[in-house]
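seq:
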Amino acid sequence: MKAKQPRSARSRLILTMELAVILPAATLVLLSARHLQTIQRDRAVEAAIQRDFSQVLAISEKQINHKAYELMDDIRNEFPVPGEACSETLDRILGAHPYVAHLMLYDPEHGFVMRSRPDRLKNDPGFREEAEHVSKMMEGWWKLEYDDFSKKLTKMDEKGTPYYFDGEWMPRGDKHVYTSTAIFLRTDKETGKAAIAAITFDGDYLRDQFFPQTLDQVMSRNVAEEQTDKNAVIMVRPKSDSTPIAYCTGWDGGNAEVERNMESVFPGLVLGMKLRGTTLAAMGKHFMHTSVLTLGGLSFLLAGGIYLTYRNVSKEMALARLKSDFVSNVSHELRTPLSLIRLYAETLELGRLTSPEKHQEYYCIIRKESERLTALINNILDFSRIEAGRKEYDFRETDMRELVRNTLESYRYQIEQHGFTLEEKIGDVPPLRVDREAVARSLVNLVNNALKYSQDRKYIGVNLYRENGSVKLEVIDHGIGIPPHEQSKIFEKFYRVGDPLVHNTKGSGLGLSLVQHIAKAHGGEVVVDSAPGAGSKFTISLPVNPAENNGTAASA
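struct:
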């Protein structure tokens, strides 16, 4: 007997679902169960914890460096100017700051001056040996390279880095201790004369007090801010030795799971972190057992979901047809940041990077793409509500000057990072009944367009003023401009100008459409004044006395 052909579109759909969903799902369950029997630990969990530890180590190093900078700044302000350094002055500084071992000052006119802790020199032969070693090393180095080195310190100070740190393992009797020397340029403001000065941390202080106390503080802060697990512990060790020289409370021995080279204040040392009482391998094994149970539960839910899908397939198909034009326009914009996030995340997960700088670069890229994806999704959600007629605005009495200033301030860092000059002219305007979030989003969309579509002339001007019964908000750029024949179309959804720079720049084509809708919802309008190569000026006009809205919320 011949098999009967499906008699309806629904029957054909059910058969397709069986072939396209049930069979792949069953295959996935079998293959996953087989794979879980042989896997020893879950690489994804291990990579996730390693990324978390790497981030915490980076934060911890910044906090350690910040504390060291505070100690150095206290002494730098007291340091004598060239020609005024004497034993009494330097000994007074040493007495007031017990964490300092040596103080040095050199300029060609007055020569090399160095003072070490007098009590240690008298009673500690090992410290005396260290002082002699430091004196010979620094005096010889500075005399030979004074001109070049002083220029280097000047450039570093101009860039906001006042110290050059030199980490050394110093001989002290039958052992070596780690010291870090902060070198900076000491300038007499009256005469303009400059000398190279240095402050050396005492090695015993670093080992016994600074590192243990600071590591405890940074771990307490990271746990309190939920940056890491409360069972995580941290230590610091030399690059050439796995034995820690200091560690936080709770360190239970063993080797660190994740490490980071300290390159700024304490070069030559390594920060390491691990979990107390367990390892990533043990956690991966536990995760494997949990995954087996989870997989069984998911398989059961999958069967129930397929059954529900059969009952609701007609409704879902009708819903899928809605917004098809919208999806076709923005799908590429959604895929691009997601693909980048996945690419860099997989690279980090595979552990192919050895440089901490590369790790930081990849984290930065993932963060920026996530922010871009968030902004795009927010625009899409607003647009979706507008299309469905469900967008509501919360009109409240608002100080427009404060709103514009706060919005620009929150966006200022990104503007400056792109190398733009921001000019604000905020005049006296009366309070308006507006939706604060919507107006702020309009301003951000216009500023973001200026950032994206400007080339060499990186300028953004924002003006707020009153004119003829309206409050006007202007955003001006010196970018590529818009041809006259396209200016009437740029506020249409999904429309993008035909300039090659526009098409090579990422965007969804929704920003200006949203700005126009927000302006009209407030009883105003948005206009553009632009010319190719001469930049653009977008002006949002909001009436001072709009028609009164009933209630505080209005639906678009």
